[in-house]
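Methods: example folding runs. The two proteins below were folded one after another, and each record is reproduced exactly as written to the output file, sequence line first and structure-token line second.
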Amino acid sequence: MQDDIEEQVAKVLESFSDIEDLVNLLKLPDFEGRDCFWYFQQFPLFSVLEVKIMDKFIRQKWDGASDVNCSMLSYSASY
């Protein structure tokens, strides 16, 4: 049964082409207040990570919202 669930989740994720749409879906809570990240933690759905858009999503989360590839003087140059 877990294989069937993983297959269906992978198909849903493959239907997305925009990362922002995917993030909005993953953050939506269910009727118990749990989001998709909670389910990813509770159940070993490793094959879902092989979906191409999940690679983009993980890379975006890994890079973060700010650029840290500069020196301290780059940030303080305007002062």
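Second run, written to the same file directly after the first:
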Amino acid sequence: MANPPESPDSEPAEEPPSFPDFEPARPDDDTRIVYQQLGAEGLGRLRARYAELMARISERATDEAAKQELKDRAERLNPDGWVTAEDVSAGLEQYEAVYDSLRAVVGQRRRRRRRR
């Protein structure tokens, strides 16, 4: 069946929004080497851990000088700051030690207990 023609003064029917097919983020020039070595999933995981740690530092540290020092240490964990292959290797090599030392200071995300 054909749709009836629209009258000139009626508004056109609103089309539902279209969602493009999901594509993993394409690396830009700054993350190309990290992306090649870690892949989209690995890079995403490190970015998430870094973001969570920075949030914890902002929440927990009360002294501005201490907060800045912790953020400077945490910056070594930012995969977007790793530009060369050597940066990536060094970052990955020291990652867990730096991450654990910072988590010892700012703690872990608190887990909610389930109520029964």
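Comment on the second run: The CA atoms of residues 6 and 12 lie 8 Å apart.
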